[in-house]
Write a structure and sequence with these properties.
Strand content: 15-25%
Helix content: 25-40%
Largest sheet: 9 strands, mixed
Structural class: alpha/beta
Organism: Haloplanus litoreus
Oligomer: single chain
Bound molecules: NADP nicotinamide-adenine-dinucleotide phosphate, the ligand Nc1nc(=O)c(N)c(NC[C@H](O)[C@H](O)[C@H](O)COP(=O)(O)O)[nH]1
Number of helices: 6
Order of helices and strands: EHEHHEEHEHEHEEE
Enzyme class: oxidoreductase
GO biological process, one term: riboflavin biosynthetic process
EC number: 1.1.1.302
CATH topology: Dihydrofolate Reductase, subunit A
Number of strands: 9
CATH architecture: 3-Layer(aba) Sandwich
Radius of gyration: 17 Å
Number of domains: 1
Subunit structure: Homodimer.
CATH superfamily: Dihydrofolate Reductase, subunit A
Distance between the termini: 18 Å
Length: 220
């Protein structure tokens, strides 16, 4: 499986505010680039923190791109995937609508009754890990289900775990020309953080988009 991570940060590396309120960092050009990434993916992954903060849809916005996917025998929209150890995703979350399949990656700690209500809401439950989702095992199950290209759109806790598990094949970051600040504000890579053996990246390309730049990396 090819795992592509994409996110947008402020100049100071923040994903959103200290209140975790969604900030529109990308402009039209960059959101269109993200839409292309979604259209090229079999599934789009976020952490439950992003679902609770943003209630995202994660579908392909461009009708032309959806038609193109259908013409190629693919579903109009990529599947949505949430890393959600305890099944905290609300059953009325937008990404549980009928526009695409939705997988919930849970751990053994996820209560049965929550799993049931999310299954009723249309989710496919994938269990991997005891207390927290084991991303390597969960992604293996998704791959067995036909997911060859996965786009991960954050947030910082999830992106840290993807790097920590050595699962990242590509990283693209839109850096917008604004400052968010705040020691509590989420950043591109949060989690425990690395104190040594820092994941090294090759800067393969830089593009000016909207009022910012897109940095394209591949792990060395
Ligand atoms: N600017 C952007 O591009 C962008 C993109 C995405 C999000 N955001 C912003 O970022 C914020 C959300 O980021 P976040 O870091 O708080 O949340 P997140 O990374 O979206 O979700 C983190 C949660 O995922 C669950 N999870 C399950 N398995 C995991 C694993 N193996 N590793 C890590 N997490 C796992 C954990 O909750 P459980 O243990 O309960 O499962 C964890 O608390 C929001 O403010 C959102 O607006 C911005
Ligand atoms: N590329 C990007 N630029 C931003 O300025 C921003 N705030 C996000 N945030 C990512 C987060 O995952 C959002 O929740 C989804 O971008 C919402 O996706 P929908 O439009 O609901 O499909 N992503």
């Amino acid at each position: 499986m090819e795992v592509v991570v994409n996110a947008a940060t402020s100049v100071d590396g923040k994903l959103s505010t200290r209140e975790r309120r969604q900030v529109r960092i990308s402009g039209e050009g960059d959101f269109d680039r993200v839409d292309r990434l979604r259209a090229a993916a079999d599934a789009v992954l976020v952490g439950v923190g992003t679902v609770l903060a943003d209630d995202p849809h994660l579908g392909v916005k461009s009708e032309d791109r959806r038609v193109e996917r259908l013409r190629n025998g693919r579903p109009a929209n990529p599947a949505r995937v949430v890393a959600d150890s305890r099944a905290r995703t609300p059953p009325d979350a937008t990404l549980l609508d009928d526009d695409a399949d939705t997988y919930l990656l849970v751990s053994a700690a996820a209560p049965e009754r929550r799993r049931d209500s999310l299954r009723e809401a249309g989710a496919t439950i994938v269990e991997a890990g005891e207390d927290r989702v084991d991303l390597t095992a969960a992604l293996d199950e998704l791959e067995a289900d036909g997911v060859a290209r996965l786009l991960a759109e954050g947030g910082g806790e999830l992106i840290y775990s993807l790097f920590d598990a050595g699962l990242v094949d590509e990283l693209s970051v839109f850096v917008g020309s604004l400052v968010i600040g705040g020691r509590e504000a989420p950043t591109l890579v949060d989690g425990e953080g690395f104190v040594a053996d820092f994941p090294a990246l090759d800067l393969v390309d830089v593009d000016r988009v909207d009022d910012g730049v897109v940095l394209h990396y591949r792990p060395t």
